Amino acid sequence: MSEQMADPKVDTGLADPAARRALTSGFDAVPGAGKPDPILVVDNIVRQFGGMTAVDVQHLEVQRGLITALIGPNGAGKTTFFNLITGFDKPTTAGKGAHWAFDGRTLDKTSASSVAQAGMVRTFQLTKALSAMTVIDNMMLGAQNQAGENLLKSMFRGTWAKQEKEIEAKADELLARFKLFEKKHDYAGSLSGGQRKLLEMARALMSDPKMIMLDEPMAGVNPALTQSLLGHIQNLRDEGMTVLFVEHDMHVVRHISDWVAVMAEGRLVAEGAADTVMSDPAVIDAYLGAHHDTDLGDDALLTDAALEGMADEVAAEDAEREAEEEAEGLR
Ligand SMILES: Nc1ncnc2c1ncn2[C@@H]1O[C@H](COP(=O)(O)OP(=O)(O)OP(=O)(O)O)[C@@H](O)[C@H]1O
């Protein structure tokens, strides 16, 4: 593998649920709580649209190696916050105290592509333009973030063809992992809702991120694929990646989050472990104020056995696929 395609997989020891619980039990369950090893630190990010404050996050730390959910009622500012920290929008406080750093690197004034190159990548919904492209072309587009200037240089050096082959091999591997290999040459627009979500995730992984940010990964996904998607997300964490995701489905949040941050009316109003944060009065207030019918989830399914079962299922499928690929000489 070339340097920029370095494998981000690291053993954080956090594949073990007991280790994760031991870690998060040391976190303060208060908004803006400090973490022992934050991969993302955000300060004073404010975004106003006209007179309306969509985001006003004074301090947030995201712990490395965990799955953190960002939840909150409709209009709480979650998507805007994602856009701000990934360089797709600018805080109103830019140059006036807004500061955020990823993996020790200040990102305040960088473009979306340099944020991606720093290792923080968000998934994108399949837009019209992307739907009109094939699955493999979508994947190759995902690699652009990763290669950046190096890609340009290598084109001049005449090594592009070799690099393109390497990138396509990596795309094939990811497509196989996400059960999309058969669809490689199909138009992305022809995929089902769940397959699109898988493609969005696979595309983001083309750049070997240290942290993947998922915006509503389960929206529009049928129950059969939900299990598989949840398993994939947990496996990314178990391989050492940090996951930050926005999700409305509280059952999903409870099932896979190690830590939950809650936004309401632009502000961070609570933080805590999934099984306790939902009973925080600030969270109940925020949701009740927004819509009364939110189901804040059910603890009955929140067992280690259920979670590990899902992760094991996907890991077994991965192993089976790898064996098949080896037999077919794909690897
Ligand atoms: N480009 C924009 N121009 C004006 N207002 C905007 C813009 N983008 C977002 N807003 C407003 O900012 C607020 C926060 O929106 P945002 O989409 O970030 O919330 P959210 O928490 O992601 O909501 P949802 O869960 O419904 O997706 C909303 O009131 C929204 O109408």
TrEMBL record:
UniProt cross-references to InterPro entries, sorted A to Z: AAA+_ATPase (IPR003593), ABC_AA/LPS_Transport (IPR051120), ABC_transporter-like_ATP-bd (IPR003439), ABC_transporter-like_CS (IPR017871), BCA_ABC_TP_C (IPR032823), P-loop_NTPase (IPR027417)
Region entry Disordered, spans: 312-331
Molecular function GO terms recorded: ATP binding
Protein name: ABC transporter ATP-binding protein
Keywords linked to the UniProt accession: ATP-binding, Nucleotide-binding, Transport
SUPFAM superfamilies, sorted: P-loop containing nucleoside triphosphate hydrolases
Statement: the UniProt record of this protein carries the keyword Acetylation: no
UniProt lineage: Bacteria, Bacillati, Actinomycetota, Actinomycetes, Propionibacteriales
Alphabetized PANTHER family for the sequence: CONSERVED COMPONENT OF ABC TRANSPORTER FOR NATURAL AMINO ACIDS (PTHR45772:SF9), CONSERVED COMPONENT OF ABC TRANSPORTER FOR NATURAL AMINO ACIDS-RELATED (PTHR45772)
Domain ABC transporter residue range list: 40-290
Membrane found in the keyword field: no
Pfam families reported for this sequence: ABC_tran (PF00005), BCA_ABC_TP_C (PF12399)
